[in-house]
Amino acid sequence: MNQKMLIQQLKQLEKDHIIIRTVYPQVPPKVEYELSDMGYALGPSMLALIEWAEMRRTRLG
Question: pTM for the whole thing?
Fold first, then answer.
């Protein structure tokens, strides 16, 4: 993934309230990202999807 794609993905995740972006006014600029409550709530669903993908991969060889 190139930098432009990463920035687009992060902006969309922020727009969808999945992550929180914090900008610190300093030189050089500092930006931090963290999961929002909605992002954390996705955890169990993501784990279930990963388990399903692993099971599918094992069965299809």
Answer: 0.76
